[in-house]
Structure formats: C-alpha cells, structure tokens
Amino acid sequence: MTLEQAQESEPLLEVREVVQEYVTRGPGGIKAGVVHAVSNVSFELGRGETLGIVGETGSGKSTLARAIIQAERPKSGQVVFLGRDVVGLRGRALKAVRADMQMVYQDPFGSLNPRWRVEDVVAEPLVGHKGMSRAASREKARELLDFVGLEPDQYARRRPMDLSGGQAQRVAIARAIAVDPALIICDEAVSSLDVLIQAQVLNLFEKLRSELGISCIFIAHDLATVKQVSDKVAVMHLGQLAEVGPASEVYRVPKHPYTHALLRSIPDLDPATGIARRPVPMSGEPPSPLHPPSGCRFRTRCPRAEDVCAEVEPRLEDAGAAGHQVACHFPLADGEAAATLGPVRETRAA
Model's pTM, two decimal places? Predict the structure, then answer.
C-alpha cells in the first residue's frame, strides 16, 4: 500500500473522548455549578461520509460542533483532523485547518455580510485563503452560485436581504465550498426552511458529496431529515452518545430506548394503507445538564431502567451489525422496535 493509499484509508476525522463543560456563576461571581455540555464523546468520520448527529434541544450537538471546528476549545479530548490533533492550534495553523473544515449555520443571514453583494460574499474566502485576485474570485463565485442552483446573472449582484431563506442558505453553502474543504459541518442548516425548500437543500448536500467528495456532519433534532442524507447516525442525549451506527440499522432496529422514543415521536404515513402513524410523545423532560442523573443519564425517563442504571454509567458497546453500538444496560431486541415502528421506508434524497 502506498502512502497516499494509506492516508485515504484513514478516517478523515477522529473525535476522541471530547469533554466540554461550562462553569456557571451566581451573585458576586461565586461558582454556582458546572454545565456538563459534552461528556467523553468519541466517533470517527470517513472520507466522503455523512454523519448525522441527532437529539433533543440541549443534548450538546452544537457544542460538539463548535469543539470540532475549534470555535471553542474543549476542556479535554482530541479532535484529529487529516491526521493532526487540532485542539489548541492558533494563528496560521488554525486558519489553515479552517479552510478544510467549514461550517453552515441554521441562520444563513447571520453568517452573510448584509452590506456585501452575493458575489463578494462567496468570493471573500477565495481572496483570504487562496490569495485569488478580486476579479478571479468573483468569476469563481459565479461558477459556485451556478453549482448550488442560483443563476449568477440573477443573483450575483443582490444583497443577502434580497434573498429568501432557501436562497440565502444556498449562498452560505457556496461560500463554504469555495475553498474546497474536506469537511462541512451543518448545524441545523435546514430547520428554519419550509418542507419543500428543505428537500431542495438536502438534495444539494447529496450533490456536494457525490460530485465533490466532501464529508459532512449533519446536525439536526429531526430524525426524519437526518435519515435522508446520512450514512451513519449518532444519537446524543444530555451530552453523551446513546447510540451510533449505520443509518439503515439505527432506523430499522434501534437499540437504545431513547432512540426508539425519538423515532416513535416522528409522524409517518404507511405507504401500503395510507394511514398515518400517530406520533408518540416522549415522556418527561430532559434533566438539567447542571445536575445530570448518576449512571445512565436517560434512566429518569426510561421505562426499562433498573437499579444498575443509577449506579453504573453505560459505555458504547457493539450491538450486532458492524459499526452499530449502543450505550445501554438493557438494549432493545430487534423485534421490540419493529413492533412499534412498523416497516422502514427508504427516504434518501434523490
């Protein structure tokens, strides 16, 4: 095997035991507590893969994304990207990494300079990271606008305020791919869009992977959305990974009661009968990350919890199919989930 082949076979991204905590302070600056936002999270992402990270609001998804891209340095752990631990990098070294690791946010208008024209918004990273001339960068920006489905002659001279939400998100994606990144992290990138526009943007992410080979971390609270674009799925609960595995396996035979509960909360339509499956809301409220339960953090809402769940924190262990892992003392058997979820349909974006 050549050096180049060996590098291609290695994971693009390795997140190793990442911890992120925040100290809260009360009157007079006295320490009031510690928010356990991300706790010992580990996973790998291969080249050209898409990993969906899902979970309720407050589960730590966005905090994890900021730690990966080094918008915030984690308290501990490693983020190995392209074979290099990026935690603690500064200055030019960090700038070089960020050229290969781009972010697309939930609110595109918040990430686009409202005073600039669209072509300049997209061209700016080409000037800053690649040293292109203004004229050359604008020409390239027009090509990128066309790639993401925006007619350059119609949109290049507009300003962000003149765009719809879906159009603005396409501009944000064009800007993100301008510097040929190896990885894009999408933080709730379609949650603010209506259903039809969501489908168009999801198809665009598929195009990025199939035509450009870009890896993607797709963060969302909506499991139905993540299912359409992900090769693998990681389910987060209260700062920890509850389940990780191939998307087809996690949706077909979820092993963690939390994953099962999330899937049951999705409204669905049986294509054979045309009858809608009524969503089943999850019971209880998520515990506070200031005071997470001992042992399993889901135990206070779990119908399968026993004494050991309060005493011993479960770790990710193999759950059957290759790459499918679950952190649960009493994981579901295959038939248990199928009885309540019904047949799994393929809904991957075309």
Answer: 0.87
